[in-house]
Amino acid sequence: MRSHHFLKSRGPAAVACAVLCCSTAIAATVPPLPRVAVIKEPGKPGQFRVRDTGAPFYPQGFNHTVLEHGDSGWHATFNVGVYDPQAMDATLAAMTEAGANTVRIWAWGVQQAGGFTDAESGVNPAYMDHFIDFLRRAARHRLYVIPILDETPQSPYYHAIARAADERAGIPPVPGRNGQYLNRGLIAAKRACAMDFVGYIRENAPESLRTILAWSLANEVCVTFTNEPFNRTAGIVTLCTGKQYDMNDREQRQACYDESILYWANELASGIKEADPHALVTTGMWTADAHGRPPRNGLWPDDKDPRIPPRPSVLAGPDSRLDFIDVHIYPWDGTSKVLPEAHEWDAVLAGRIPAIVGEYGVFKNKSIDEARVMIREMLEQAYAMGYIGDLHWIWDLTGVPGQTWSAVEENLASYLMRFPRPIR
Questions:
Q1: Closest CA to 195 of 117, 273, 263, 111
Q2: Which of 48, 275, 398, 401 has the lowest tally of Cβ within 10 angstroms?
Q3: Residue 152: left (phi > 0), alpha (psi -120 to 50), or beta?
Q4: CATH number, domain with residue 133
Q5: Which residues make Cβ contacts (< 8 Å) with residue 291, sequence separation at least 6?
Q6: Residue range(s) defining the domain that contains residue 116
Q7: Is residue 423 part of a domain?
Q8: Distance between CA atoms of 164 and 129, rounded to whole angstroms?
Q9: What is the domain count for the chain?
Q10: Tell me: the pLDDT tens digits for 346-390?
Protein backbone atom coordinates (compact mmCIF):
# COMPACT_ATOMS: atom_id res chain seq x y z
CA MET A 1 0.00 0.00 0.00
CA ARG A 2 2.88 2.35 0.74
CA SER A 3 4.17 2.05 -2.83
CA HIS A 4 0.72 2.97 -4.17
CA HIS A 5 0.62 6.18 -2.13
CA PHE A 6 4.09 7.00 -3.45
CA LEU A 7 2.84 6.59 -7.01
CA LYS A 8 -0.18 8.78 -6.40
CA SER A 9 2.05 11.58 -5.12
CA ARG A 10 3.85 11.62 -8.47
CA GLY A 11 0.72 12.53 -10.45
CA PRO A 12 -1.55 10.74 -12.95
CA ALA A 13 1.04 10.42 -15.75
CA ALA A 14 3.59 8.75 -13.48
CA VAL A 15 0.93 6.48 -12.02
CA ALA A 16 -0.24 5.41 -15.48
CA CYS A 17 3.33 4.71 -16.59
CA ALA A 18 4.10 2.68 -13.48
CA VAL A 19 0.84 0.74 -13.75
CA LEU A 20 1.50 -0.07 -17.41
CA CYS A 21 5.09 -1.19 -16.74
CA CYS A 22 3.96 -3.41 -13.86
CA SER A 23 1.09 -4.75 -15.97
CA THR A 24 3.46 -5.61 -18.83
CA ALA A 25 5.71 -7.49 -16.41
CA ILE A 26 2.70 -9.47 -15.16
CA ALA A 27 1.70 -10.34 -18.74
CA ALA A 28 5.18 -11.69 -19.46
CA THR A 29 4.92 -14.26 -16.67
CA VAL A 30 1.26 -15.29 -16.80
CA PRO A 31 -0.11 -17.77 -19.34
CA PRO A 32 -3.34 -16.51 -20.96
CA LEU A 33 -6.61 -18.10 -19.96
CA PRO A 34 -8.19 -20.44 -22.50
CA ARG A 35 -11.14 -19.01 -24.39
CA VAL A 36 -14.64 -20.04 -23.34
CA ALA A 37 -17.27 -20.63 -26.02
CA VAL A 38 -21.02 -21.26 -26.06
CA ILE A 39 -21.93 -24.64 -27.52
CA LYS A 40 -25.42 -25.43 -28.81
CA GLU A 41 -26.25 -29.08 -29.36
CA PRO A 42 -29.55 -30.23 -30.92
CA GLY A 43 -32.23 -30.78 -28.30
CA LYS A 44 -30.09 -29.48 -25.42
CA PRO A 45 -29.74 -26.15 -23.63
CA GLY A 46 -26.67 -24.12 -24.54
CA GLN A 47 -23.53 -24.74 -22.51
CA PHE A 48 -20.23 -23.01 -21.79
CA ARG A 49 -17.22 -25.03 -22.92
CA VAL A 50 -13.48 -24.37 -22.86
CA ARG A 51 -12.55 -24.06 -26.54
CA ASP A 52 -9.26 -25.92 -26.33
CA THR A 53 -10.46 -28.93 -24.36
CA GLY A 54 -14.26 -29.03 -24.61
CA ALA A 55 -14.48 -29.14 -20.81
CA PRO A 56 -17.68 -27.68 -19.33
CA PHE A 57 -17.40 -24.30 -17.64
CA TYR A 58 -19.75 -22.89 -15.00
CA PRO A 59 -19.24 -19.21 -14.14
CA GLN A 60 -19.16 -18.77 -10.39
CA GLY A 61 -17.97 -15.77 -8.44
CA PHE A 62 -18.75 -12.20 -7.53
CA ASN A 63 -19.65 -8.71 -8.70
CA HIS A 64 -17.15 -6.03 -7.74
CA THR A 65 -17.06 -2.25 -7.91
CA VAL A 66 -15.28 0.76 -6.46
CA LEU A 67 -17.46 3.85 -6.11
CA GLU A 68 -16.35 7.36 -6.98
CA HIS A 69 -16.23 8.51 -3.35
CA GLY A 70 -15.55 5.14 -1.76
CA ASP A 71 -18.90 4.75 -0.02
CA SER A 72 -21.03 6.80 -2.44
CA GLY A 73 -21.25 7.96 -6.03
CA TRP A 74 -21.19 6.12 -9.33
CA HIS A 75 -18.85 3.33 -10.41
CA ALA A 76 -15.28 4.57 -10.91
CA THR A 77 -13.16 1.44 -10.49
CA PHE A 78 -10.69 2.22 -13.31
CA ASN A 79 -10.81 6.02 -13.31
CA VAL A 80 -7.56 7.93 -13.16
CA GLY A 81 -6.99 8.82 -9.51
CA VAL A 82 -9.24 5.98 -8.28
CA TYR A 83 -7.79 2.74 -9.66
CA ASP A 84 -5.59 1.02 -7.07
CA PRO A 85 -3.58 -1.86 -8.57
CA GLN A 86 -2.45 -3.30 -5.25
CA ALA A 87 -5.92 -3.22 -3.71
CA MET A 88 -7.36 -4.81 -6.85
CA ASP A 89 -4.75 -7.54 -6.79
CA ALA A 90 -5.59 -8.35 -3.17
CA THR A 91 -9.30 -8.47 -3.99
CA LEU A 92 -8.80 -10.81 -6.94
CA ALA A 93 -6.54 -13.05 -4.87
CA ALA A 94 -9.21 -13.26 -2.15
CA MET A 95 -11.88 -14.17 -4.72
CA THR A 96 -9.73 -16.97 -6.08
CA GLU A 97 -8.98 -18.18 -2.58
CA ALA A 98 -12.72 -18.35 -1.90
CA GLY A 99 -13.19 -20.55 -4.99
CA ALA A 100 -14.38 -18.08 -7.66
CA ASN A 101 -13.58 -18.37 -11.36
CA THR A 102 -15.37 -15.22 -12.63
CA VAL A 103 -15.74 -11.56 -11.64
CA ARG A 104 -18.32 -9.16 -13.08
CA ILE A 105 -17.28 -5.51 -12.98
CA TRP A 106 -18.13 -2.06 -14.39
CA ALA A 107 -15.81 -1.38 -17.30
CA TRP A 108 -17.59 1.94 -17.91
CA GLY A 109 -18.48 4.29 -15.10
CA VAL A 110 -18.08 7.94 -14.14
CA GLN A 111 -17.31 10.00 -17.24
CA GLN A 112 -15.64 13.13 -15.94
CA ALA A 113 -11.91 13.82 -16.53
CA GLY A 114 -10.11 10.55 -15.96
CA GLY A 115 -13.04 8.44 -17.12
CA PHE A 116 -13.20 6.03 -20.03
CA THR A 117 -13.89 8.58 -22.79
CA ASP A 118 -11.61 11.16 -24.33
CA ALA A 119 -13.13 14.40 -25.56
CA GLU A 120 -11.29 14.40 -28.88
CA SER A 121 -10.38 10.86 -29.83
CA GLY A 122 -12.62 8.17 -28.38
CA VAL A 123 -11.43 6.17 -25.39
CA ASN A 124 -9.01 7.48 -22.76
CA PRO A 125 -5.62 5.70 -23.04
CA ALA A 126 -4.77 6.13 -19.35
CA TYR A 127 -8.09 4.56 -18.38
CA MET A 128 -7.60 1.75 -20.87
CA ASP A 129 -4.16 0.98 -19.45
CA HIS A 130 -5.74 0.62 -16.02
CA PHE A 131 -8.30 -1.76 -17.45
CA ILE A 132 -5.63 -3.82 -19.20
CA ASP A 133 -3.66 -3.98 -15.96
CA PHE A 134 -6.78 -5.33 -14.27
CA LEU A 135 -7.28 -7.97 -16.99
CA ARG A 136 -3.71 -9.14 -16.58
CA ARG A 137 -4.09 -9.38 -12.82
CA ALA A 138 -7.35 -11.29 -13.26
CA ALA A 139 -5.57 -13.74 -15.58
CA ARG A 140 -2.82 -14.20 -13.02
CA HIS A 141 -5.46 -15.17 -10.48
CA ARG A 142 -7.22 -17.39 -13.08
CA LEU A 143 -10.39 -15.34 -13.04
CA TYR A 144 -12.52 -14.67 -16.09
CA VAL A 145 -14.09 -11.22 -16.39
CA ILE A 146 -17.52 -9.97 -17.44
CA PRO A 147 -17.01 -6.23 -18.08
CA ILE A 148 -20.18 -4.12 -18.02
CA LEU A 149 -20.43 -1.45 -20.73
CA ASP A 150 -23.14 0.48 -18.92
CA GLU A 151 -25.11 3.47 -20.20
CA THR A 152 -23.81 5.50 -23.20
CA PRO A 153 -20.55 7.39 -23.83
CA GLN A 154 -20.76 11.09 -22.98
CA SER A 155 -18.12 13.06 -24.87
CA PRO A 156 -18.04 15.43 -27.87
CA TYR A 157 -16.43 12.69 -29.96
CA TYR A 158 -19.28 10.20 -29.44
CA HIS A 159 -21.97 12.89 -29.40
CA ALA A 160 -20.95 13.71 -32.97
CA ILE A 161 -21.38 10.07 -33.97
CA ALA A 162 -24.84 10.03 -32.39
CA ARG A 163 -25.95 13.21 -34.18
CA ALA A 164 -24.75 11.94 -37.54
CA ALA A 165 -26.57 8.61 -37.10
CA ASP A 166 -29.80 10.37 -36.12
CA GLU A 167 -29.57 12.62 -39.16
CA ARG A 168 -29.05 9.65 -41.47
CA ALA A 169 -31.99 7.79 -39.94
CA GLY A 170 -34.30 10.80 -40.13
CA ILE A 171 -36.03 9.65 -36.93
CA PRO A 172 -36.54 12.21 -34.13
CA PRO A 173 -34.55 11.04 -31.08
CA VAL A 174 -36.45 10.03 -27.95
CA PRO A 175 -35.60 12.37 -25.05
CA GLY A 176 -34.76 11.16 -21.56
CA ARG A 177 -33.32 7.96 -20.12
CA ASN A 178 -35.18 5.61 -22.48
CA GLY A 179 -33.31 7.07 -25.43
CA GLN A 180 -30.21 4.96 -24.82
CA TYR A 181 -32.21 1.88 -25.88
CA LEU A 182 -34.50 3.47 -28.49
CA ASN A 183 -32.44 6.03 -30.45
CA ARG A 184 -30.45 5.09 -33.53
CA GLY A 185 -27.90 7.79 -32.70
CA LEU A 186 -27.16 6.75 -29.13
CA ILE A 187 -27.00 3.11 -30.14
CA ALA A 188 -24.55 3.98 -32.93
CA ALA A 189 -22.39 5.99 -30.51
CA LYS A 190 -22.31 3.18 -27.97
CA ARG A 191 -21.50 0.66 -30.70
CA ALA A 192 -18.57 2.82 -31.82
CA CYS A 193 -17.31 3.23 -28.26
CA ALA A 194 -17.60 -0.50 -27.51
CA MET A 195 -15.62 -1.24 -30.68
CA ASP A 196 -12.99 1.34 -29.70
CA PHE A 197 -12.76 -0.15 -26.20
CA VAL A 198 -12.34 -3.72 -27.46
CA GLY A 199 -10.08 -2.54 -30.27
CA TYR A 200 -7.70 -0.79 -27.87
CA ILE A 201 -7.23 -4.05 -25.98
CA ARG A 202 -6.80 -5.99 -29.23
CA GLU A 203 -4.08 -3.58 -30.36
CA ASN A 204 -2.23 -3.24 -27.05
CA ALA A 205 -2.84 -6.48 -25.13
CA PRO A 206 -4.49 -9.04 -27.43
CA GLU A 207 -3.86 -11.92 -25.02
CA SER A 208 -6.10 -10.14 -22.47
CA LEU A 209 -9.16 -10.65 -24.67
CA ARG A 210 -8.97 -14.32 -23.65
CA THR A 211 -9.66 -13.23 -20.05
CA ILE A 212 -13.01 -11.76 -21.09
CA LEU A 213 -15.75 -14.33 -20.55
CA ALA A 214 -18.28 -11.99 -22.15
CA TRP A 215 -18.98 -8.31 -22.66
CA SER A 216 -22.17 -7.15 -20.92
CA LEU A 217 -24.08 -4.46 -22.80
CA ALA A 218 -25.70 -3.05 -19.64
CA ASN A 219 -25.89 -3.78 -15.95
CA GLU A 220 -29.70 -3.97 -15.89
CA VAL A 221 -31.65 -3.16 -19.03
CA CYS A 222 -34.92 -1.35 -18.41
CA VAL A 223 -37.12 1.42 -19.74
CA THR A 224 -39.62 3.43 -17.72
CA PHE A 225 -43.22 4.30 -18.46
CA THR A 226 -42.68 7.73 -16.90
CA ASN A 227 -40.46 8.73 -19.84
CA GLU A 228 -40.98 9.01 -23.60
CA PRO A 229 -42.48 7.27 -25.45
CA PHE A 230 -44.15 4.97 -22.92
CA ASN A 231 -45.55 7.85 -20.87
CA ARG A 232 -47.93 8.40 -23.80
CA THR A 233 -51.19 6.52 -24.05
CA ALA A 234 -52.01 7.86 -27.53
CA GLY A 235 -50.20 8.78 -30.71
CA ILE A 236 -47.83 7.12 -33.16
CA VAL A 237 -44.09 6.87 -32.52
CA THR A 238 -41.19 5.79 -34.74
CA LEU A 239 -38.11 4.36 -33.01
CA CYS A 240 -34.76 2.78 -33.88
CA THR A 241 -36.37 -0.10 -35.77
CA GLY A 242 -37.81 2.37 -38.29
CA LYS A 243 -41.29 0.99 -37.61
CA GLN A 244 -44.32 2.87 -36.30
CA TYR A 245 -46.18 1.93 -33.12
CA ASP A 246 -49.54 3.06 -31.70
CA MET A 247 -49.14 4.01 -28.03
CA ASN A 248 -52.84 3.38 -27.41
CA ASP A 249 -52.52 -0.30 -28.33
CA ARG A 250 -51.06 -2.56 -25.61
CA GLU A 251 -49.83 -5.14 -28.12
CA GLN A 252 -48.06 -2.48 -30.18
CA ARG A 253 -46.55 -0.96 -27.03
CA GLN A 254 -45.14 -4.36 -26.13
CA ALA A 255 -43.92 -4.92 -29.69
CA CYS A 256 -42.32 -1.47 -29.63
CA TYR A 257 -40.23 -2.47 -26.59
CA ASP A 258 -39.50 -6.03 -27.71
CA GLU A 259 -38.38 -5.06 -31.22
CA SER A 260 -36.43 -2.00 -30.12
CA ILE A 261 -34.50 -3.77 -27.36
CA LEU A 262 -33.64 -6.58 -29.76
CA TYR A 263 -32.35 -3.99 -32.27
CA TRP A 264 -30.27 -2.40 -29.48
CA ALA A 265 -28.78 -5.73 -28.39
CA ASN A 266 -28.04 -6.94 -31.91
CA GLU A 267 -26.42 -3.70 -33.06
CA LEU A 268 -24.09 -3.60 -30.07
CA ALA A 269 -23.33 -7.31 -30.15
CA SER A 270 -22.47 -7.17 -33.86
CA GLY A 271 -20.05 -4.30 -33.24
CA ILE A 272 -18.24 -6.12 -30.45
CA LYS A 273 -18.02 -9.31 -32.52
CA GLU A 274 -16.62 -7.29 -35.41
CA ALA A 275 -13.88 -5.99 -33.09
CA ASP A 276 -13.25 -9.47 -31.65
CA PRO A 277 -14.80 -12.35 -33.62
CA HIS A 278 -14.35 -14.74 -30.67
CA ALA A 279 -16.14 -12.47 -28.19
CA LEU A 280 -19.20 -13.57 -26.26
CA VAL A 281 -21.83 -10.91 -25.52
CA THR A 282 -24.53 -10.78 -22.85
CA THR A 283 -26.56 -8.23 -20.91
CA GLY A 284 -27.84 -7.96 -17.37
CA MET A 285 -31.54 -7.81 -16.57
CA TRP A 286 -34.14 -8.70 -14.01
CA THR A 287 -37.62 -10.08 -14.55
CA ALA A 288 -41.18 -8.77 -14.31
CA ASP A 289 -41.91 -10.58 -11.03
CA ALA A 290 -39.82 -7.90 -9.29
CA HIS A 291 -42.88 -5.65 -9.47
CA GLY A 292 -45.67 -8.19 -9.63
CA ARG A 293 -46.34 -7.99 -13.36
CA PRO A 294 -46.56 -10.65 -16.06
CA PRO A 295 -43.72 -10.58 -18.63
CA ARG A 296 -46.11 -9.30 -21.34
CA ASN A 297 -47.62 -6.22 -19.70
CA GLY A 298 -47.80 -3.66 -22.53
CA LEU A 299 -45.83 -1.14 -20.45
CA TRP A 300 -49.10 0.53 -19.53
CA PRO A 301 -48.62 3.07 -16.71
CA ASP A 302 -49.72 1.83 -13.28
CA ASP A 303 -48.98 2.59 -9.62
CA LYS A 304 -46.02 0.20 -9.40
CA ASP A 305 -42.31 0.74 -10.00
CA PRO A 306 -42.11 2.44 -13.44
CA ARG A 307 -39.01 0.49 -14.50
CA ILE A 308 -39.79 -2.31 -16.95
CA PRO A 309 -37.19 -4.99 -17.74
CA PRO A 310 -37.13 -6.69 -21.15
CA ARG A 311 -38.66 -10.09 -21.68
CA PRO A 312 -36.13 -12.93 -21.33
CA SER A 313 -37.72 -14.69 -24.32
CA VAL A 314 -36.82 -11.73 -26.55
CA LEU A 315 -33.14 -11.44 -25.62
CA ALA A 316 -32.75 -15.24 -25.51
CA GLY A 317 -34.80 -15.80 -28.65
CA PRO A 318 -33.77 -17.10 -32.08
CA ASP A 319 -33.28 -13.59 -33.50
CA SER A 320 -30.96 -12.44 -30.71
CA ARG A 321 -27.20 -12.08 -31.27
CA LEU A 322 -26.52 -12.39 -27.55
CA ASP A 323 -24.63 -15.53 -26.55
CA PHE A 324 -26.32 -15.87 -23.16
CA ILE A 325 -28.48 -13.86 -20.79
CA ASP A 326 -27.62 -12.68 -17.30
CA VAL A 327 -30.67 -12.57 -15.02
CA HIS A 328 -30.67 -10.99 -11.55
CA ILE A 329 -32.52 -12.66 -8.70
CA TYR A 330 -33.38 -11.09 -5.36
CA PRO A 331 -36.10 -11.79 -2.77
CA TRP A 332 -38.47 -9.40 -4.52
CA ASP A 333 -41.51 -10.35 -2.42
CA GLY A 334 -39.56 -11.04 0.78
CA THR A 335 -39.29 -14.74 0.00
CA SER A 336 -36.78 -16.87 -1.89
CA LYS A 337 -39.26 -17.89 -4.62
CA VAL A 338 -37.93 -18.00 -8.19
CA LEU A 339 -40.82 -18.14 -10.65
CA PRO A 340 -40.21 -19.95 -13.97
CA GLU A 341 -43.14 -18.16 -15.63
CA ALA A 342 -41.66 -14.74 -14.84
CA HIS A 343 -38.38 -15.90 -16.37
CA GLU A 344 -40.28 -17.21 -19.44
CA TRP A 345 -38.19 -20.28 -18.90
CA ASP A 346 -39.78 -22.52 -21.52
CA ALA A 347 -39.04 -19.92 -24.19
CA VAL A 348 -35.49 -19.39 -22.90
CA LEU A 349 -34.81 -23.11 -23.11
CA ALA A 350 -36.25 -23.18 -26.62
CA GLY A 351 -33.76 -20.49 -27.63
CA ARG A 352 -30.96 -22.85 -26.54
CA ILE A 353 -28.66 -20.17 -25.19
CA PRO A 354 -27.25 -20.38 -21.65
CA ALA A 355 -28.50 -18.28 -18.77
CA ILE A 356 -26.61 -17.32 -15.64
CA VAL A 357 -27.67 -15.59 -12.43
CA GLY A 358 -25.48 -12.53 -12.87
CA GLU A 359 -26.56 -11.02 -9.55
CA TYR A 360 -28.17 -12.43 -6.44
CA GLY A 361 -28.14 -11.40 -2.82
CA VAL A 362 -30.18 -10.74 0.30
CA PHE A 363 -30.57 -7.38 1.98
CA LYS A 364 -29.67 -6.72 5.59
CA ASN A 365 -33.23 -6.60 6.84
CA LYS A 366 -32.55 -10.34 7.09
CA SER A 367 -29.98 -11.77 9.48
CA ILE A 368 -26.88 -13.39 8.01
CA ASP A 369 -28.25 -16.81 8.95
CA GLU A 370 -31.55 -16.05 7.18
CA ALA A 371 -29.62 -14.67 4.21
CA ARG A 372 -27.57 -17.86 3.84
CA VAL A 373 -30.72 -19.97 3.76
CA MET A 374 -32.51 -17.70 1.27
CA ILE A 375 -29.48 -17.51 -1.02
CA ARG A 376 -29.18 -21.25 -1.13
CA GLU A 377 -32.91 -21.66 -1.80
CA MET A 378 -32.85 -19.10 -4.64
CA LEU A 379 -29.86 -20.70 -6.33
CA GLU A 380 -31.20 -24.23 -5.93
CA GLN A 381 -34.40 -23.18 -7.71
CA ALA A 382 -32.49 -21.34 -10.44
CA TYR A 383 -30.19 -24.28 -11.12
CA ALA A 384 -33.11 -26.69 -11.06
CA MET A 385 -34.69 -24.56 -13.81
CA GLY A 386 -31.53 -24.70 -15.90
CA TYR A 387 -29.30 -21.76 -14.98
CA ILE A 388 -25.63 -22.69 -15.23
CA GLY A 389 -23.70 -20.01 -13.33
CA ASP A 390 -24.01 -17.47 -10.55
CA LEU A 391 -22.25 -14.28 -9.44
CA HIS A 392 -22.99 -12.85 -6.00
CA TRP A 393 -23.84 -9.19 -5.43
CA ILE A 394 -21.53 -7.86 -4.02
CA TRP A 395 -17.90 -8.44 -2.98
CA ASP A 396 -17.58 -5.44 -0.67
CA LEU A 397 -19.94 -2.50 -0.25
CA THR A 398 -20.02 -2.76 3.53
CA GLY A 399 -19.86 1.00 3.94
CA VAL A 400 -22.90 1.69 1.74
CA PRO A 401 -26.34 1.86 3.44
CA GLY A 402 -29.16 -0.26 2.04
CA GLN A 403 -26.90 -2.81 0.37
CA THR A 404 -27.07 -6.61 0.46
CA TRP A 405 -24.76 -8.65 2.63
CA SER A 406 -21.27 -8.30 1.16
CA ALA A 407 -19.23 -11.40 0.42
CA VAL A 408 -16.46 -10.19 2.75
CA GLU A 409 -18.83 -10.24 5.74
CA GLU A 410 -19.45 -13.18 8.07
CA ASN A 411 -17.32 -15.57 5.96
CA LEU A 412 -20.04 -15.36 3.32
CA ALA A 413 -17.69 -15.67 0.32
CA SER A 414 -16.45 -19.08 1.39
CA TYR A 415 -20.01 -20.25 2.08
CA LEU A 416 -21.25 -19.09 -1.32
CA MET A 417 -18.48 -20.75 -3.30
CA ARG A 418 -18.57 -24.07 -1.50
CA PHE A 419 -22.13 -25.32 -1.31
CA PRO A 420 -22.89 -27.70 -4.21
CA ARG A 421 -24.93 -26.48 -7.19
CA PRO A 422 -27.50 -28.89 -8.65
CA ILE A 423 -26.22 -28.49 -12.22
CA ARG A 424 -28.43 -30.30 -14.73
A1: 273
A2: 401
A3: beta
A4: 3.20.20.80
A5: 304, 305, 307, 332
A6: 2-418
A7: no
A8: 30
A9: 1
A10: 988 888 899 999 999 999 999 999 999 999 999 999 999 999 999
